[in-house]
Design a protein that fits this description.
Structural class: alpha+beta
Shape: globular
Strand content: 25-35%
Oligomer: single chain
Radius of gyration: 24 Å
Number of helices: 9
CATH architecture of the largest domain: Alpha-Beta Barrel
Distance between the termini: 64 Å
Number of strands: 13
Helix content: 40-55%
CATH topology of the largest domain: Multidrug-efflux Transporter 1 Regulator Bmrr, Chain A
Order of helices and strands: EHHEEHHHHEEHHEEEEEHEEE
């Protein structure tokens, strides 16, 4: 078999990348076959591409996204060591955060008297965590917080769960949320955005709705359990925690609604409060 004409099946065996994965990497431009048979569309690789295939396999195993892998490969080819080290450092930070979370869970489950109530209490402290970017559908409004959220959520659900979008296979991929765009507390004219992460090709008929990417990154997080009327106290708590440590806010505050108020009692409602922060820069939180 020619070293410069390796069929996709053989290349798959050598690199331990499935043919399905190789076709995806071809589409993404990560690992494009050296040649394709015009008549059959069959893909052929060269021996020099084996190292790239193995690198992609290893980077996937380390948890890098395809976008990050593409950046790393380009940086490697251009000799940009700084970019590679920055992405490696970011990945180490995420791993350490996940290790700490798993260690907390292990310690909690090891307790002789472990209970659901104790689990709640144990994780009801502000923590610094990493969040991933999300594709969301959102709508902004201005008014009193509760009234504005109720109105926007109704519009959002009507749009996402429309007959057209259900037929097109649009799916909600995470909890609904509210995003507060003001830099201060406002009683009657708050600017609030209600949003939901989703997948699929969505049809948007409301001109006030926007499909966008909600940035990920580092945030301060607090899980609050109880009625929505008690969220003010939770915000005071997480705000004071951030002030004490002089965390610098980098984006709007968010409320993530972790369960459905139509299926649980008020006292069982779980809401995650998030403040995007930069822990490297110290300053007053907005």
């Amino acid at each position: 078999m020619a070293y410069d004409r390796i069929p996709i099946g053989r290349f798959s065996l050598i690199t331990r990348l499935s043919p399905k994965a190789l076709r995806l990497y071809d589409e993404r431009g990560l690992l494009v076959p050296a040649t394709k048979d015009i008549a059959t569309g069959y893909r052929y690789y060269t021996g020099t591409q084996i190292a790239t295939g193995v690198s992609i396999k290893e980077l996937c195993a380390l948890g890098f996204s395809l976008a990050e892998i593409e950046t790393i490969l380009v940086a490697k080819d251009t000799g940009d060591r700084q970019t590679v080290q920055q992405l490696f450092c970011k990945r180490r930070t995420l791993i350490r955060s996940e290790v700490r979370r798993l260690q907390q869970i292990e310690a909690l489950l090891s307790e002789t008297g472990a209970s659901l109530e104790m689990m709640y209490m144990s994780f009801n402290e502000p923590v610094v965590k990493e969040t991933a970017p999300q594709r969301i559908l959102g709508k902004r409004g201005v008014g009193m917080y509760a009234d504005c959220i109720a109105r926007l959520m109704k519009d959002l659900c009507g749009q996402i769960f429309s007959e057209t979008n259900m037929r097109n296979g649009v799916k909600v991929t995470g909890p609904f949320m509210s995003i507060y765009h003001d830099q201060e507390y406002r009683e009657t004219d708050a600017t609030v955005e209600c949003a939901a992460p989703f997948s699929g090709k969505i049809t948007v008929s409301d001109p006030e709705m926007e499909v966008r990417t909600l940035p990920g990154g580092t945030c301060l997080s607090l899980i609050y359990k109880g009625p929505y009327s008690g969220l003010h106290g939770a915000w005071c708590r997480i705000g004071a925690y951030a002030e004490e440590r002089e965390f610098l806010a980098t984006g709007p505050h968010r409320e993530i609604y972790l369960n459905d108020p139509d299926t649980v009692t008020e006292n069982e409602l779980l809401t995650e409060l998030q403040i995007p922060i930069d822990i490297r820069a110290r300053g007053k939180i907005s």
